[in-house]
Automatic annotation (TrEMBL):
Enzymatic reactions: GMP + ATP = GDP + ADP
Keyword Amino-acid biosynthesis: no
InterPro entries linked to this entry: GK/Ca_channel_bsu, Guanylate_kin-like_dom, P-loop_NTPase
Family stated for the protein in its record: Belongs to the guanylate kinase family.
Functional description taken from the UniProt entry: Essential for recycling GMP and indirectly, cGMP.
Source superkingdom: Bacteria
Gene Ontology MF terms in the entry: kinase activity
Domain Guanylate kinase-like, chain residue ranges per copy: 7-185
SUPFAM superfamilies: P-loop containing nucleoside triphosphate hydrolases
Protein's recorded name: Guanylate kinase
Keyword vocabulary terms for this entry: Kinase, Transferase
Length: 192
């Protein structure tokens, strides 16, 4: 099989607080899967670093970028570039990206089976708010976010990804890791 056909991007999507970044970090640490760093106009949260967690942009620098897709989420812009995808694929054929559900749909439309969609959810949406509070999100930002239509939308898997996405209920981290390990094992066989 040629290198091109072995490439996969694991698109980790779901509601805010569902654990997308945690999953992406786990896959990077355990399987050396680079994370595609995306761009945003929102301000860094405490502990976030420019060019590591995001490329933090102004509205005008965002306009200069060559993006595969771009969305508005809770009044801020987010987008991912072709260059960042290729840079990550230069390091490994299995890479990850963290996107909202609209971005996940676009990735599937654009990349087909190269995009492996993982939809993360939790059994009780109340636990999302407590997780974000524990993460240290500012209360005012958190209140604004959970009022946003994007927050409500991302609690559900979009219909177009119904028979496509791998669904993981991330209530218990140990169980989530087992599910991820199984998925990675099956993907690694697929691309061998
Ligand atoms: N299974 C779990 N049980 C308890 N806490 C968890 C679990 N998974 C992740 N967390 C914690 O929940 C918080 C939110 O996780 P994370 O930042 O990964 O979410 P996210 O989906 O990337 O959120 P956002 O879209 O807002 O960036 C973090 O503090 C993380 O450590
Ligand atoms: N469609 C895209 N969604 C993205 C991108 N980068 C991040 N995200 C998603 O936005 C929300 C909010 O992120 P946060 O870091 O402010 O909590 C979340 O669902 C991310 O997954 C992107 O380039 N395109």
């Amino acid at each position: 099989m040629g290198l091109e056909s072995m490439k996969r991007v694991l698109v980790i999507t779901g509601a805010t607080g569902a654990g997308k970044t945690t999953v992406s970090n786990y896959l990077e640490e355990k399987y050396d899967m680079p994370k595609v760093i995306t761009h945003t106009t929102r301000a860094p949260r405490p502990g976030e670093t420019d060019d590591v967690d995001y490329h933090f942009e102004t509205k005008s620098s965002m306009e200069q970028l060559h993006l595969l897709e771009k969305v508005e989420y809770d009044h801020h812009q987010y987008g991912s570039s072709y260059e960042a995808l290729d840079q990550a694929w230069e390091k490994n054929s299995l890479i990850t990206i963290v996107l909202d559900t609209k971005g996940a749909q676009t990735y599937y439309e654009q990349l087909g089976e190269k995009a492996v969609i993982i939809f993360l959810t939790v059994s009780h949406s109340k636990s999302l708010v407590s997780r974000l509070t524990r993460r240290g999100d500012q209360i005012s930002a958190l209140e604004q976010r959970i009022k946003s239509e994007e927050y409500q939308r991302d609690l559900q898997l979009p219909k177009s990804l119904n028979n496509v996405a791998h669904l993981i209920v991330n209530d218990h981290w140990e169980e989530t890791k087992e599910k991820l390990d199984k998925l990675v094992a099956s993907l690694s066989n697929e691309v061998k």
